[in-house]
Write a structure and sequence with these properties.
The protein has one helix and two strands; from the N terminus they run αββ. With 104 residues, the protein is an alpha+beta fold. The N and C termini lie far apart (66 Å).
Length: 104
């Protein structure tokens, strides 16, 4: 069976048109309202100060791997190479900027 090169070209063009149509981006910028600068008359006469508390931040201090976990939920048998049959445990040590905050 001989394939006609024109049929292959038409099929490739059809696939590329469908791919481009599927990747079309929605243009929602026309529906967005235009922001205007308030005039002097609508500005508040007294400045407002935000009084919200700053959120506590959390971060990872260390990530330990091993084959056993102790009662304190820390790695009791650290390891950096494992066999396919080993059970691998990971312990994440975290810290927060707020001493009263807890990281689950």
């Amino acid at each position: 069976m001989t394939r006609n090169p024109i049929n292959i070209a038409i099929a490739a063009a059809l696939v590329s048109v469908l791919a481009l149509a599927g990747c079309k981006k929605n243009d929602d910028t026309a529906a967005a309202p235009i922001a205007t600068t308030p005039t002097v008359d609508t500005m508040p006469t007294t400045p407002t100060v935000a009084t919200t508390a700053m959120a506590a931040t959390a971060g990872v201090v260390s990530l330990d791997f091993g084959t056993a976990v102790g009662a304190d939920k820390k790695i009791s048998a650290p390891a950096d190479t494992f066999k396919p049959t080993d059970t691998v445990y990971a312990a994440v040590t975290t810290m927060t900027s707020d001493a009263s905050a807890t990281v689950p």
